[in-house]
Amino acid sequence: MNPGKALLRQDMMPHILCPGCGHGIVMSALVRVLAKRYASLDQVALVAGIGCSSRVVGYIDANTLHTTHGRALSFATGLKLARPELTVIVVTGDGDGLGIGGNHLIHAARRNVDLTCILFNNETYGMTGGQLAPTTVTQAFTTTTPYGNHESAFDATALVTAAGATFVARAQAYRPDLLEGLIEQALDHRGFSFLDVLTDCTEYFSRKNQLGAGSDLLFSQTRSDTEISLDLTEWPRLQEPDGFPVRNLMPMGVLHESNRPTLEEVMELPGYRPKEG
Amino acid sequence: MATELVSGNEACARGAMAAGCNFFGGYPISPSSEVAEALARLLPKNGGVFLQMEDEMGSLGSVLGASLGGAKAMTATSGPGFTLMQEHLGYATLAEIPCVVVDVMRVGPSTGVPTAPSQGDVMQARWGSHGDRAVIVLAPASVQEIYEMTIIAFNLAERLRTPVVLIYDEVLAHMRERVELLVPHQEDLWRRPKPSVPPGPGYRPYLANEEGVAPLPNFGDGYRFHVTGLMHDERGYPTTQAKAVSQLMSRLKNKMEPVTEWILPESYRLEDADLAFVAYGITARVAKEAVDRLRDAGILAGLFRPRLLWPVPVTDFQKLLGHAGIAVVAEMNQGQWVEVVERLAPRSMQVLGQGKLGGEPMTTEELMNVAETLMQKGARVL
């Protein structure tokens, strides 16, 4: 049994996630980490935006705040500054955090508020039926790119690093062991920590691009402990149609770490206890 | 108590401090910026947090997050920013998060005339966010009243767990007047109701008290509840059940009912008036002078000044104004609150909207001319 089961709101089940969706794996890793660190989640707030990923906070028996589309980080920033003693974790998606909420993301990174942001990256808008996201790879098919995506995808980790985040890492749902470790490191970090977690949308993105079922899709991405392949042409069923884009290997693990005072420290907020290191 | 010469925006900030405001999240915009500037100075010195956010959505988002943490939180903006805040005003209504939003009205639509007054946001304040919402909108008419109403706005927001909007125009924002900075007694500062049950299975976060308001603990107090902008049941859990949705919507509307009894309109020389001006904010000041001068000229004029624009003070309107033959609704827009007056007026009453656009305040002479012309035409007088 998941040691975190006691931290779930059983009466809110069943959850809304589709069979094969990687979001549950990411959530499960988060809950295991929370169970390891906290006997009760009284002092933990989970703040989310809108989308499939953002619905997971409701299932966790913490102080949970399901906000508006893209704006979770603004709520989290206000909450954290008003109650600096709380542990604040933001759950967002790639459309939520990088599309409509991109502005809040870069400014949260710049402010270096001491909170953790976990971005569930499934390369599409799943809740609304599988449309183009700012993370959708070039030429991929979605319901709003019937002729293939003409645009380039965001690298979320590069974006927040440039904006000033002090801990940036990438993980993958297929490797929950590594993911768990990275969530721990992010929570240990003093300052704005960011995790780009590649997960999958089996119902929409996978189907549109013939990427197989959930586990196949996840497996297709995994390469090593330090790299994720987003090279779709290597997946046998993607030999056709011709010209499907070759995506680069992307590094996994801790990508950036730096040390500067948090906003709470600079503002000298009473109640804030900076973590070591 | 101190008496000082302060501007409207400064009075707003001072009123917020007197109310116990300890969080401000905002974004610069004319003609409201002095509210933020004053609180940037005052809040950190008094244990509060001032935060300049990246935009107006983020501003109100930060305010709502802080409020759930237990802060008395506010923001201030002007028309274009107020438009961007509508999303979170709707969220705050449904999730029932106390907050105060100040909207200093300038000429719109769009960028309009950023530094000139208007009263063009009255309907935006009522209907700006999608869906059905019950809203509270206060309209002060002097710098003194801005100070006092900012305190009232916090009281209403806290007691009823709802966003409260304070709207005034650019003239009031920048006008300096003598203000008595009355410090309210602690017992006159209302706080959100707190749960009477301890944390645990017996606690239902959206179970309302006798006033129709659900008690609200702070995040971190041990109650571990869920807050969402989805329709929700008493547990705070998302629901799509029609009955639960309609019950929630009814409660959100009904809990606003006492507000019209708490915030009374000003009635000036209405008892025997043939012609009543209906005006709010700065325009009411002009109308008041017009009333006196018209009476000097033999025309029985009066003034009805709503201090609460929404919800509409229906009973007071009919009680105080019902007998006047003519109502002239003066406002710096193309006719917004006049629609309310038309709806409430008895059939015998002639209702005329007197709008003014362009960024110059209404003048006493303009209103007197309108009144004199109407009376010369021999308008029906009961």
Query: If classified by CATH, what would the architecture of the largest domain in chain B be?
Result: 3-Layer(aba) Sandwich
How much helix, percentage-wise, in residues of chain B? 25-40%
Major sheet of chain A? 7 strands, mixed
Mean pLDDT score of chain A:
89
Outline of this structure?
Chain A is of the alpha/beta class and 277 residues long. Chain A has helices at residues 23-37, 72-82, 94-100, 102-111, 156-163, 176-188, 202-208, 214-221, 263-266; strands spanning 44-48, 63-66, 87-93, 116-121, 124-125, 131-132, 167-172, 193-198, 227-229, 249-251, 253-257. The radius of gyration of chain A is 18 Å and the shape is globular.
Please tell me about this protein's structure.
The complex is a heterodimer of chains A (about 280) and B (about 375). Chain A is of the alpha/beta class. Chain A has a single domain, classed as Thiamin diphosphate (ThDP)-binding fold, Pyr/PP domains (Rossmann fold, 3-Layer(aba) Sandwich), CATH 3.40.50. Chain A is about 30% helix and about 20% strand. Chain A contains nine helices and eleven strands. Chain A has a seven-stranded mixed β-sheet, with helices on both faces. In chain A, strands 5-6 form a two-stranded antiparallel sheet. Chain A is globular and about 55 Å long. Chain A starts with about 20 loop residues before the first helix and ends in an 11-residue tail after the last helix. About 5% of the residues of chain A have low confidence. Chain B is an alpha/beta fold and about 375 residues long. Chain B folds into two domains: about 190 residues, Thiamin diphosphate (ThDP)-binding fold, Pyr/PP domains (Rossmann fold, 3-Layer(aba) Sandwich), CATH 3.40.50; about 110 residues, Rossmann fold. Chain B contains 13 helices and 16 strands. In chain B, the strands form three sheets. In chain B, strands 2, 3, 4, 5, 6, 7, 8 and 14 form an eight-stranded mixed β-sheet that branches. In chain B, strands 11-13-12-15-16 form a five-stranded mixed β-sheet, with helices on both faces. Chain B has a two-stranded antiparallel sheet with strand order 1-9. The radius of gyration of chain B is 21 Å and the shape is globular. The mean pLDDT of chain B is about 95. Classes of the chains: A alpha/beta (about 280), B alpha/beta (about 375). At the A-B interface, β2, α2 and α4 of A face α3, α4 and β10 of B.
